[in-house]
């Protein structure tokens, strides 16, 4: 069977983009660490976020995050500073995914973590409490989710956190995203050198927060517009001053007009443009 696909010559649409999963998951952890009462708005409806919400609200002794890798990493750190003993587990495939780098770093801070199965892999048995450690060193090329998991618990640590990153840092945009969100919720966290971040022992505040739409999802519509002779596409829920690395699209493809809808929310309307040669700032959208 053969399928023929053809693009519309003059696409016209108003698109309700999905919320950013990266921002949603970080905002939920920060909100929980701050014991906030104002739940972040416009949360993602993806599996990772649904699992995160369930884990944070149901308070079970055994937390099954299924195949949600982000939830496994962020919740592992979160549980280390949350009173009580819990087991965090996942699917059979999740139990084959290494987590030793994060566990070792948390243990350096004083966390009580045991492997409930194979050494170096989930499930984990975690007894949460006050951590007295304040300094950790990681390689800069590890998963940014390990780094973000540690950073987000920094404000609630007795002595704060100093995080040293050695070698090349390959995921700086995601680290900066985490730091920006922490700051939005009242934390004091910043780069104090090219390879070192300091997080002060300063509690999060209860903050009204709206999750931005996902710039990665927006990239497909950018390309449709770029490949069309004429188009009118409005992308809703994007912020003019976005923390997402993929927001660099609006600078790589500059012929997009913006219209402010809310104090921070902007719609973008498209006109066809030439596709740029340099995509180094938005690598996650390069395949589109």
From TrEMBL:
UniProt GO BP: chorismate biosynthetic process
Keyword line: Transferase
A GO MF label: 3-phosphoshikimate 1-carboxyvinyltransferase activity
Coiled-coil stretches: none
Positions of the Enolpyruvate transferase domain: 57-247
Keyword hit for RNA-binding: no
Name assigned to this protein: 5-enolpyruvylshikimate-3-phosphate synthase
A Pfam family this chain is assigned to: EPSP_synthase
């Amino acid at each position: 069977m053969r399928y023929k696909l053809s693009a519309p010559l003059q696409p016209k649409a108003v698109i309700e983009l999905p919320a950013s999963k990266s921002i949603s998951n970080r905002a939920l952890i920060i909100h929980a660490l701050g014991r906030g009462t104002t739940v972040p708005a416009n949360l993602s409806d993806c599996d990772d976020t649904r699992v995160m919400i369930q884990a944070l609200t149901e308070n079970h002794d055994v937390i099954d995050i299924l195949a949600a890798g982000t939830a496994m990493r962020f919740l592992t750190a979160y549980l280390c500073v949350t009173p009580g003993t819990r087991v965090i587990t996942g699917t059979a495939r999740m139990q084959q995914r290494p987590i030793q780098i994060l566990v070792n770093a948390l243990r350096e801070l004083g966390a009580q973590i045991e492997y409930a199965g194979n050494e170096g892999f989930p499930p984990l048995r975690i007894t949460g409490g006050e951590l007295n450690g304040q300094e950790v060193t990681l390689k800069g090329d590890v998963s940014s989710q390990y780094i973000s998991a540690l950073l987000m618990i920094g404000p609630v640590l007795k002595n704060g956190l100093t995080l040293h990153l050695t070698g090349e840092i390959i995921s700086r945009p995601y680290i900066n995203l985490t730091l920006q969100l922490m700051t939005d919720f009242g934390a004091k966290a910043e780069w104090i050198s090219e390879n070192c971040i300091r997080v002060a022992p300063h509690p999060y505040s209860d903050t009204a927060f709206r999750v931005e739409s996902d710039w990665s999802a927006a990239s497909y519509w950018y390309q449709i517009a770029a490949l069309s002779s004429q188009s009118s596409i409005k992308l809703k829920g994007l912020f003019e001053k976005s923390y997402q690395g993929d927001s660099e699209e609006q600078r790589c493809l500059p012929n997009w007009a913006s219209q402010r809808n809310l104090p921070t929310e902007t719609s973008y309307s498209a006109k066809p443009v030439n596709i740029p040669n340099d995509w180094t700032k938005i690598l996650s959208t390069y395949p589109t």
